[in-house]
Structure to design on (444 residues):
């Protein structure tokens, strides 16, 4: 049972009353007292005698008016208290409830609390505009916001952060918390900062105040220095390897096909006979990418035909592919030790598991998954096929995105330019030699 008192604690003659909340937590055998200021201003002289039994009519009217006004505040706080677990009651909680009393949430304005802003996106996921231009965000995006809410709830502890609290310092501190305390990788932690900014911008459109530094918060994904892909030599080694089971041979066929057509694992494993179409005498694979909703047309080259000469591989799940493809690469001798990260699962209490990517040096086969298909395609063809044509198949929106994806830097540009001039010099030398031969033949 909670009790509420109102106090005039200012030295000023007219000042806001302070609300004091008192309650006992029997589970801890402990009493708690929290205070917060109201916006209800009262005269100190009146307050000293506000409980007296004066018969003055004006005093009685004033007494009734104040009582009714304070009763409204008291009822609001007690109702909130009764609907909140005792573990969440704190000074910050009380201050937030007082704020909500004076700034009630309406249909046109959402709560300014950060966790409420995240929940608003989750609750309205089915009507939110998505990257494909339609309505409804994916289940994975909803789960991403749910995990963000869990992180913020745990991070703020007894404090309740508001949307306007999200500034550069907040973002840096939260990023450090995810990396050092929760042990997440830099890439994943940075993605959470990007999600946090999205939440705040969304809240701003609903009339919630944001910090002026919000746009300056850096959520740029760090450059991946450990690009995992299979080069042409490794792919040939895999193609020629002796595998003991039909299941592994089936996975190998999916892997070789994926590295040949440059599609994500989910799109790759959904390919069937209906995706193979003849367009003006040219056989192509046509599909709509699940993630981007883009239509992609891929020519069926001789290398693709060789992979599929005994037919399409049979359908398997992405989970089974990711597990068995490692075994295929292990048996194929893809044993180079390189930097990368593997997912480590640890038990966290009864029925709870914690997944974290552990960075380190591993044999390459340990790092292979469905992601390697699209990246191998782009990496192996970069510099051989015009970049816009690679982008047409991988469905990267910009050249910058493609180059970041395959880890190409300024040195690669320099190498491309050098290769171009070497090729031009070879062509000029060849043309010059041909001219001399023609002249010599004309003289005979």
């Amino acid at each position: 049972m909670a009790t509420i008192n109102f106090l005039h604690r200012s030295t000023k003659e007219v000042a806001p009353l302070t609300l004091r909340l008192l309650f006992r937590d029997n589970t801890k055998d402990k009493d708690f007292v929290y205070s917060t200021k109201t916006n209800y201003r009262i005269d100190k002289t009146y307050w000293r005698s506000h409980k007296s039994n004066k018969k003055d009519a004006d005093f009685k009217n004033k007494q009734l008016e104040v009582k009714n006004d304070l009763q409204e505040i008291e009822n609001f706080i007690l109702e909130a208290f009764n609907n909140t677990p005792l573990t969440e009651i704190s000074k910050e909680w009380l201050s937030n409830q007082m704020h909500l009393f004076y700034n009630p949430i309406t249909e046109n304005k959402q709560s300014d609390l950060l966790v409420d802003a995240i929940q608003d996106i989750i609750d309205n996921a089915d009507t939110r505009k998505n990257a494909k231009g339609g309505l409804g965000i994916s289940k994975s995006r909803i789960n991403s916001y749910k995990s963000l809410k869990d992180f913020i709830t745990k991070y703020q502890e007894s404090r309740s952060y508001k949307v306007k609290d999200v500034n550069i310092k907040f973002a840096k501190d939260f990023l450090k918390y995810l990396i050092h305390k929760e042990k997440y990788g830099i890439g994943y932690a940075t993605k959470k900062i990007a999600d946090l900014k999205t939440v705040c911008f969304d809240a701003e459109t609903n009339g919630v105040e944001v910090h002026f530094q919000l746009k300056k918060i850096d959520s740029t994904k760090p450059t991946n220095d450990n690009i995992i892909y299979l080069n042409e030599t490794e792919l040939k080694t895999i193609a020629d390897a002796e595998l003991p089971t039909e299941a592994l041979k089936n996975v190998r066929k999916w892997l070789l096909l994926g590295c040949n057509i440059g599609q994500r694992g989910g799109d790759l494993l959904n390919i069937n006979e209906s995706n193979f179409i003849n367009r003006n005498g040219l056989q192509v694979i046509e599909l709509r990418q699940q993630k981007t909703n883009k239509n992609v047309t891929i020519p069926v080259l001789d290398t693709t035909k060789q992979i599929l000469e005994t037919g399409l591989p049979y359908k398997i799940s992405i989970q089974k592919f990711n597990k068995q493809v490692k075994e295929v690469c292990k048996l194929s001798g893809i044993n180079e030790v390189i930097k990368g990260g593997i997912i480590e699962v640890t038990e966290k209490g009864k029925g709870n598991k914690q997944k974290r990517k552990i960075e380190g040096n591993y044999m390459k086969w340990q790092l292979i998954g469905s992601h390697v298909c699209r990246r191998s395609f782009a990496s192996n063809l970069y510099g051989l096929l015009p970049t816009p044509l690679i982008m047409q198949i991988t469905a990267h929106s910009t050249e910058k995105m493609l180059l970041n994806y395959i880890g190409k830097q300024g040195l690669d540009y320099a190498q491309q330019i050098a290769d171009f001039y070497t090729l031009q010099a070879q062509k000029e030398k060849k043309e010059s030699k041909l001219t001399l031969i023609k002249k010599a033949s004309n003289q005979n």
